[in-house]
Amino acid sequence: MKTIKSINKELSNSNSPIIISGPCSAETEEQLITTCKQLAATKKVDVLRAGIWKPRTKPGSFEGVGAEGLKWLAEAKKETGLKTAVEVANVKHVYSALKHNVDILWLGARTTVNPFAVQEIADALAGVDVTVLLKNPINPDLALWEGGIERMLKTGVDKVGVIHRGFSKYGVSNFRNAPQWQIPIELKHRFPELTMICDPSHICGKRETLQEVAQKALDLNFDGLMIESHMNPEVALSDASQQVTPADLVKLLNKLVLRTNKLPAKGANTELDLLRQSINVLDSELIDVLSKRMETSDKIGSYKKANGVKILQTNRWDEILTTSTNEAQEKGLTKEFIERVLTNIHIESINRQNDIMNT
Ligand code: PEP
Ligand code: MN
Predict the structure, then answer these.
(1) Would residue 29 count as lying in a domain?
(2) Considering the entire predicted model, what is its pTM?
(3) Which of 206, 225, 255 is the last residue before a domain boundary?
(4) Are residues 154 and 299 in the same domain?
(5) 289, 249: one domain
(6) Measured distance CA(154)–CA(150) in Å, rounded
């Protein structure tokens, strides 16, 4: 299996963070070329994106203009000198995009979720020098996302990166797709050299919250952003409420605070060093308390075993939860946080008691 090659050079024109922008869908030649020219004029965009074939939840909505749009995109590339990126969902899309000189191919969330489709695309790309970006699968399955990267590497496609676009969820929420930041963070941990782009447009589903999600992505060390833009978002044929005009894209980008990940020289008693030392001491105390907590749970397990008492007494658990949640809230912790912590402790405690009972 090949190893991941850095693609920051492939994606970046000059900007850091890398900015990929363009319409959700190519709709008409005029809409695509005008939008792309406006984006190029900002000098803030590295790669132009456009959806040519649109995977839609239900039939009947706009499903893309198809290969015709690739000619317009090729024209936009010629006029602006910028690289282009297109979503491919099957082998036919791959051949068509490559024939029209698309620089970067991305796999959408509904494609990464399907190992057969990913494998077919990877096989079609064997021996082709192209950059591939894998969006996360629609469900929060890190292994599936990782599997997509591995399928590419195995067929020799080593210029791969990922796009985090959030995860599907049921019910109403502030996000169109829940970001679940811990998943891309864990992916980066497993592949430190991986280029990671965040797609705030599909996470937010609305323009109003793009700024804060884009900022958060940069603070979490993402290499770039993919943000949908349209010369006239209100009348866009897909994702109208989340697209921004090129002018608004510039406003958004100018407002971003670019923070460094370089720390002040170590050793000197900088404020950060001192705070980190305190955190280390507190973490060690936490571990100590947790260990004592589990030793006590074990003793309770032995008592219950000796006396033929069942492990779970819901009343007792409710009582712990209520008392501790009240106390925690008084001390400035959120209910949600303390419930998560206590639930995890409770599960571990039950598992240990179960081991004691049954061995
Ligand atoms: C898109 O980028 O327009 C798109 C369809 O995205 P996703 O695969 O993230 O839904
Ligand atoms: Mn879209």
Answers:
(1) yes
(2) 0.86
(3) 255
(4) no
(5) no
(6) 6
User: What is the 3-state secondary structure of the chain?
Assistant: CCCCCCCHHHHCCCCCCEEEEECCECCCHHHHHHHHHHHHHHCCCCEEEEECCCCCCCCCCCCCCCCHHHHHHHHHHHHHCCEEEEECCCHHHHHHHHHCCCCEEEECHHHHCCHHHHHHHHHHCCCCCCEEEEECCCCCCHHHHHHHHHHHHHCCCCCEEEEECCECCCCCCCCCCECCCHHHHHHHHHCCCCEEEECHHHHHCCHHHHHHHHHHHHHCCCCEEEEEECCCHHHCCCCHHHCECHHHHHHHHHHCCCCCCCCCCCCCCCHHHHHHHHHHHHHHHHHHHHHHHHHHHHHHHHHHHHHCCCCCCHHHHHHHHHHHHHHHHHCCCCHHHHHHHHHHHHHHHHHHHHHHHCC
Which residue has its alpha carbon closest to ligand 1 atom 1? 24
Please check whether residues 173 and 215 belong to one and the same domain.
yes
What's the pLDDT tens digit per position in 149-183? 999 999 999 999 999 999 998 888 999 999 999 99
Task: Report whether residue 231 contacts ligand 1, using a CB cutoff of 6 Å.
Answer: no
The residue ranges of the chain whose pLDDT is under 70 are: 266-268
Which atom in ligand 1 lies closest to the alpha carbon of residue 109? 8
- Quick one: 190 and 299 in the same domain? no
| Domain CATH for 148 | 3.20.20.70
What is the number of the ligand closest to the CA of 205? 2
d(CA 276, CA 3): 34
Best residue among 32, 87, 163, 169 to mutate for probing ligand 1, ranked by most atoms within 8 Å of CB: 87
pLDDT digits (tens, 9 = 90+) for 223-251: 999 999 999 999 999 999 999 999 999 99
Task: Give residue 269's pLDDT.
Answer: 72
How many domains is the chain built from? Answer: 2
Q: Return d(Cα 291, Cα 345) in angstroms, integer.
A: 11
For the Cβ of 202 lying below 6 angstroms from any atom of ligand 1, the answer is yes
Environment of ion ligand 2 (residues, CB < 5 A): 24, 239
Q: Is 205 in the pocket of ligand 1 (CB under 6 A)?
A: no
